[in-house]
Description:
Helix content: 25-40%
Order of helices and strands: EHEHEHEHHEHEHEEEEEEHHH
CATH topology: TIM Barrel
Oligomer: single chain
CATH class: Alpha Beta
Structural class: alpha/beta
Largest sheet: 12 strands, mixed
CATH superfamily: Aldolase class I
Distance between the termini: 24 Å
Number of strands: 12
Amino acid sequence: MTQSAKVDEPRRLIDRFGRVHNNLRISVTDRCNIRCFYCMPADNVEFMPRTELLSFEEIERVVRIGTTVGIDRVRLTGGEPLVRRDLHLLIEKLAAIPGIFDIGLTTNAVLLGEQAQKLKDAGLQRLNISLDALDPEVFKRVTRRDSYDKVIEGIQAARAAGFSPIKLNAVAVKGMTEDQIIPFAQLARETDTEVRFIEFMPLDADSKWQKEKVLLAADIVARIEAEFGKLQPVPSSNPNAPANDFVFADGVGRIGLIASVSQPFCSTCNRFRITADGKLRNCLFSHEESDIRDLLRHDGTDEDIAAAMLMCIAAKEAGHQINSADFVQPDRPMYSIGG
């Protein structure tokens, strides 16, 4: 990447619980080319007008300002980020910002086959692919679209472009994806793929999430161990990583568990978000947002924007409260927030 930026040490993004925030997740669009039930409605989705989306230049400015208060890594999300035209040009802009050392992307890979090499050449370093099933029929039930072959093509193109390891994110849902666990584990053993199982979270557009539908991380581990033997925990090199990683007993293959519901990792969270329409959110489950698009478009100074980031992080709660009787699901579903 580039040389270090000058960080204003007294004004780092530190919340009242001492968590340092250096990881910014940027949604570039709320549009998507599939309709996963845990994220979007099946039909009649109302997307934001394109004029409401942050421009690449506005995103670049926000990230540049963010480096002065400690941001050094970004991840582009959606919706589906690859439906945003010429995304590689944004990655080039971000890769040139002093102080940004890590650029990642989360995608469903439907359009990745035609873009993987351009993304790699532009400076994209890490790639997470959302794939909830290796069975095309189960994939279709989850996504409500028939795009499985395109996803596989995208994964192959990512490998050919030099992305390694390939990380797959699989949302685990009771009554739907249990029979995909062993095939995913086998894939992790046979290829350079790191599979990360994610507990089903209450961010669906239809607000039909029920805790009973969550396929728990402990149950996933039990199923894998019954087939392959004991899994060995892998100490993380990144204390802020959301996944608990494991290798198989013989050292061949790696999986991760993101237990957002049963084992929340809020105490080590270092992430915050910008929605596609320019709202700062300090948590996926937050009910409060800070509008920086208005600052960007109405003569807000760099200092104003940095101050908005600092205030956003200062207001962050200790945790998301999913397991509390007081939990209220956010009004915005996942596709509107940014994954």
